[in-house]
Design goal:
Blueprint: E1 3-8, H1 12-23, E2 29-31, E3 43-44, E4 52-53, E5 59-60, H2 64-73, E6 77-79, E7 84-88, E8 91-94, H3 98-106, H4 118-123, H5 130-143, H6 153-165, E9 171-174, H7 179-191, E10 195-197, E11 201-208, E12 211-218, E13 221-232, H8 236-240, E14 245-247, H9 251-258, E15 261-263, E16 265-272, E17 284-285, E18 294-298, E19 301-307, H10 317-332, E20 340-345, E21 358-360, H11 368-373, E22 380-382, H12 396-417
Helix pairs in contact: 1-7, 1-12, 3-5
């Protein structure tokens, strides 16, 4: 028996799509290669302590797409401290003007004219001291996961404008972790009639107008699923790798995939014993060390973060964790290892279901999002953070928004076929 619609991927975008289509009584089938739902949201429990987020952690602002799920499912969130610090030998120096310092640089990006890389742009900035430029450079690499030598300055402007529209400087965490939202979305989709098959890695999508055949491997078994249409929510890294073959090919979409970059991030979570990190110091550390410039704390969990090209040096768990421990010792001017109870790390760059953390836009790629978000003959539809509205790429709320948009497109296509 054929399906009405198959959704490839049970990350946040796929689950958002499934929720909407299930609510419309379409009973979508979701195929997920991993043994879990959530994609690049991966929350681990620490028992009585705060959750460990191996992937996405923060809600950036008050995006209506996410706020809707929070209200619907009565999810608890907590605002994160907006304190920013520099630390030298364990002495915390406040960076109370952090956002103003970034604005000194980003506000100088031209709104018109030729697009250029951030590295090209920043060399021409005058009237800003080198320390502020270094801070802004670190933000581009850390927050956007971008290489300053190819990331588009126009895309940074779009991100800043999109952030301002949702109060993006206000950040929140789910009290029980991002996994709580994933579980709520999963439950809503299944209760509405969606079927979600885990450990089903899709390898091929054959299509013609109004018909698709999706091929997936489940263990040693090769399975085929026929449907009227498919929603592809795979990360750009997976699409770029050619892990899924489209027949016929999609040359326009392939060119768009190629013009978007998959950023690399390394994140190490350390559970600390008391006595090292002062209890009254919350918020974010910046330019802490060369190997791990950004740090933050959530109760007993301290996170080391590095994005962009610097992240490429931490390719294995052993290297990343040892580097984080060395950096923590450097920050406090003493051996930090006795204070570390445990460490967790996930390499998203080597994860075959992601091949990176999240996308960013190089010069020449500003139009790619629009192409990636377009359906193909009302049969193939695309969602995921890389297809989100301008400025929302790389965010969970962007992934949710894209899934809701793809669901609307599916429903509209079905109405037009009648």
């Amino acid at each position: 028996m054929g399906e009405r619609v198959v959704i490839v991927g049970a990350g946040v975008a796929g689950l958002a799509t499934a929720c909407e289509l299930a609510a419309a009584r379409l009973q979508p089938l979701v195929l997920e290669g991993r043994a879990r739902v959530g994609g690049r949201v991966h929350t681990l429990s620490t028992g009585d302590g705060p959750p460990l987020e191996l992937g996405a952690e923060f809600l950036h602002g008050l995006a209506p797409e996410v706020e809707r799920f929070i209200r619907e499912h009565h999810l608890a969130k907590r605002q994160v401290s907006d304190d920013h610090w520099r630390v030298r030998e364990g002495v915390f120096e406040p960076l109370s003007d952090f956002w103003d310092l970034l604005a000194e640089v980003f506000d100088k990006i031209p709104k018109r004219g030729r697009d250029e890389t951030y590295a090209e742009f920043v060399t021409k900035v005058r009237g800003v001291n080198e320390r502020t430029k270094t801070l802004a450079n670190d933000f581009v690499e850390g927050f956007h996961a971008g290489n300053t030598r190819d990331i588009s300055v126009r895309s940074i402007v779009e991100a800043e404008e999109a952030s301002a529209a949702v109060d993006g400087t206000k950040q929140f965490r789910f009290v029980a972790g991002y996994g709580e939202m994933v579980r709520a979305m999963h439950a809503k989709a299944v209760v509405g009639g969606a079927r979600i098959l885990l450990n089903h890695a899709v390898s091929r999508v054959e299509w013609r107008r109004g018909n698709v055949r999706v091929t997936a491997r489940a263990g040693n078994e090769i399975l085929h699923f026929d449907a009227d249409g498919a929603v592809i929510t795979l990360p750009v890294g997976v699409l770029q790798a050619g892990s899924v073959v489209f027949d016929p090919q999609l040359p326009r979409q392939e060119r768009a995939f190629a013009s978007v970059a998959m950023g690399n991030v390394v994140k190490v979570n350390l559970i600390l014993r008391p006595g090292l990190w002062p209890d009254d110091k919350q918020g974010f550390l910046h330019l802490a060390t060369e190997k791990f410039p950004t740090w933050w704390r959530n109760g007993s969990v301290v996170t080391a973060w590095v994005g962009g090209p610097k992240a490429d040096a931490h390719d294995s768990a052993l290297v990343a964790i040892n580097s984080a421990l060395d950096s923590l010792s450097q920050i406090f001017g003493r051996n930090a290892r006795p204070f570390v109870e445990s460490a967790q790390f996930h390499n998203w760059r080597n994860d075959p279901f992601a091949y990176g953390a999240y996308s960013y836009v190089p010069v020449g790629g500003l139009n790619a999002r629009r192409v990636l978000a377009q359906d193909v003959e009302r049969t193939l539809f695309f969602a995921g953070e890389a297809t989100a509205q301008p400025g929302f790429q790389g965010t969970v709320h962007g992934a949710v928004e894209s899934g809701l948009r793809a669901a609307r497109e599916v429903l509209d296509a079905r109405r037009r076929r009648r």
